[in-house]
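Input record (one chain):
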Amino acid sequence: MSFELNRKLAARRKPLPTAAKVDPVTAGIIRGALETICFEAATHLGRSASSPIINQSNERNASIIDAQGRLASGSIGTPHLTFVSQLTVRYGLDYVQEYDWGPGDVFLGNDPDCGGGHLPDYNVYAPVYDDHGELILVQALQAHQGDTGGKDPGGFTLEATDIFTEGLAIPCVKLVHRGEKRRDIIRLVERNNRFATFSGDLAAMISGVQMSVKRLQDLIRKWGPDVVKAAINHSIDHTEQRFREEVARWPDGSYEGTVYIDHDTLGTKDVKVHVTCTVQGDQLTVDLAGTDDRRELVGVWNTFANSRGYVMVQLAAMVDPGIVKNEGLFHAVDIRIPEGCIAQPPPNAPAALGSFHPACEITEAVAVALSKVVPGRCQPQVYKIGMPNAVIGFDQHGMWLDQGVDARSMDVSAVAGIDGWGSCPAALGNLLLSEAEDAELRFPVLNISREMTTDAGGPGRWRGQPGSLNVKKVLEPTMAMAWMVSAAHPLSGMCGGEDASPYLNHFEVGSPNERRIELTARAQLPAGAVIAYQHGGGAGFGSPLERDPEAVKEDVLDEYVSLEAARTRYGVVLTGTLENYDLAVDLAATLALREQMKSAKAAKAA
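The corresponding structure, as predicted from the sequence alone:
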């Protein structure tokens, strides 16, 4: 567990050894089969698990890693899980002899210092051998678990100073040996989790990879191991080639982006993430030098694997979406993360909250830097939520935890040509927001309001989606936890667009104890207490003074934008009233006002 281990895990791996040649059509057919198997594995987990964060919100992902440790294929899932899972598997592959790998085995890992993300992201994986006993592939399923057995329920400890406070760290452990469950190990893992339903979630992950192993064995028998290996090599090489072709069209130069986190969990302000993206021919280098490395920071440490994966999430969104997502992406980019900074902390640093911040600021900073290069695809589609507004209690079944993964609108930014649309940012892939009614059935919580907030979307030529005000009442005494950020530094507007609206959070609304959460909170709430959580909106793209005035009028009619903001932020003069539904654009007055606002802005800049 060291920086040296990170370098080893991230190092480029050799192609699979094979004498077979494969044509592009055959390689594409085999790639499609791998993607289908991944999709089936992720779907199996989503339908079999009992935790709402998995079976409702789809915070799970499947991937296939080849015998060299390269990402061969992934499912439609949560992108950052796709790009982190191979390092956990690589750790296991590097110790094949010590862990006694063989057919029928299933492993588990979650250790941030051994290739993992944060502790809640459990990675269950199983080797796939051909009929001659050669290791060809590894099927992995990664999912966010609701608890990790640490100091605080849910795995998020606001004041944690080491990983051991947050829960059980597992570099690699065998759950199934040659097809037989290791019940002692499984019960040990289950014992280190507060949820009674966790055993079902773990069983769903095990059965999901076992099902996929059988399908992959059938695929290998059909095509032969050499052809399958050749197809994987072809796909990875083609992805690298296509990515490099995209980069070669970008202008050479170095482009910088800086983004700040409001504060760490103890209140240290303006935690910095800095990225320099250098383009030289077909080579792209992403360097996080200049990112905060103060050792006294608390709660803002992201794992090396997560940081590496979050860089790639943004880069993959900035090139042709038809480029296949596999190890070839990493071959085409040199990602440099300074040792000891918050994006690659020293061993045993706590990392649970790092998957929110600075992980999201890393992708955002990459987008800011490359907005000068590929402005049409530069919007940071990330979530700026500080952490789940967790509400925790106990009943006859044990602990329950409402992590706030149900319906809301947040962080949906505009891109060139398209207003922010939907309820959560595109970078979350097929992560869904579960139904509020489902949460009310599971937990003693009543959802009072989920309304979008007028003027909560960042203005721009294309407008960010408004964030929603989430008001909920707890029906029993509960504990609530929160880490509030993205109030001072919300999502960045792009190419002249304005920043998103900030996050706000209030506990015990309407009572004498009502208070705004400025930093962190761990509070015992009485029955009937009300929480009001204003989710930040999405950021704008392009100058708001270039937005079609008729589109602004429609925004006002739809209550996305107020009459005042139409004038003061978009420079649009409207006649008529909302009450009579007879709003109309005064074009001459609008043009005059916009020219006046442009002149004032130019004078201020000078």
